[in-house]
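Before the break, one more example. Copy the sequence into your notebook; we will annotate it together after we see the structure.
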Amino acid sequence: IDSLLFVCNAFIYALNATAKFVATPEGTALAYGSLVFMALLPIFFGALRSVTCSKSKNAADMPETITSRDAARFPIIASCTLFGLYLFFKVFSQEYINLLLSVYFFVLGVLALSHTMSPLMSRIFPASFPNKQYQLLFTQGSGESKEEIVNYEFDTKNLVCLLISSVVGVWYLLKKHWIANNLFGLAFALNGVELLHLNNVSTGCILLGGLFIYDVFWVFGTNVMVTVAKSFEAPIKLVFPQDLLEKGLEASNFAMLGLGDIVIPGIFIALLLRFDVSLNKNSRTYFYSSFLAYIFGLGLTIFVMHTFKHAQPALLYLVPACVGFPVIIALFKGELTEMFSGLKVQNLMSGGLKPYWLLIPE
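Here is what the structure looks like once it is written out:
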């Protein structure tokens, strides 16, 4: 899911269904304002949830740690995957490829949306609700050589979430409606920010720097990124119609924002939140500065895109903003060495420090 989540989507591009369509200023403002708002939701709440998920005992909720080696290889892997998809769409029928992708993302989307809804359902259901516990266990071998393959614990509330998510999945599979697409896209983004952890700030800089080059090359250097994004019918991007005011929910001229522009900066912002918590101070300076930097970078991307009327690699603006702002603050506060050492963050992830600012209860 990681490579498919990040590849071929790190850009912003205004997509018109017909060449004659010209969005009204009101429609354009509503579309891009909505995209920015939707992008902020998974970053903010995913970062909060990332603080607690590392202490979960459920294997399905354990975060995946990205090392410096992973970060260095990722742009190469992403480029190969992106170009491979481009060749697939050139050689094979787009209709059949998208059919297979629809089924694949249906399964992933149902699971991601179910996981996203789970904490909310735990709060909604009354204490008297008969919540039974279940365990899905797959093992290999027998006796002393028995090895666990899958060990997943869940309850009745999780099953209710799975049922609701399946309804959304069927809706997306049959109608490809933009609202269903966005529900899945938001779930993918939130899960990515929550469950993908950078092991330190240096690794984050390597990852963002590599994808900065990747994004600029594939958007400005070739037409591969835009071609794949237009052909790829899957919830790997958030969309919002620019003609919503004229056509309502049946609108079809979309502006879109790739999930990579949310998740890539999002996991770095979540790392800075965990760093803030590890400092054991009553402030979230680095988290809020990087969060505001993300808003600035995304707004600048949209402004430049409309000024030059060309697809923009959003990471060209997001990476310098999200990395530069907190680094400058750390320099002035004398915490730059501590930020890049990663010791405090490692202590938090290993349970060495008890975080005291938990907005999402365990």
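The longest strand covers residues 147-155. The radius of gyration is 21 Å. Try to locate both features in your own notes.
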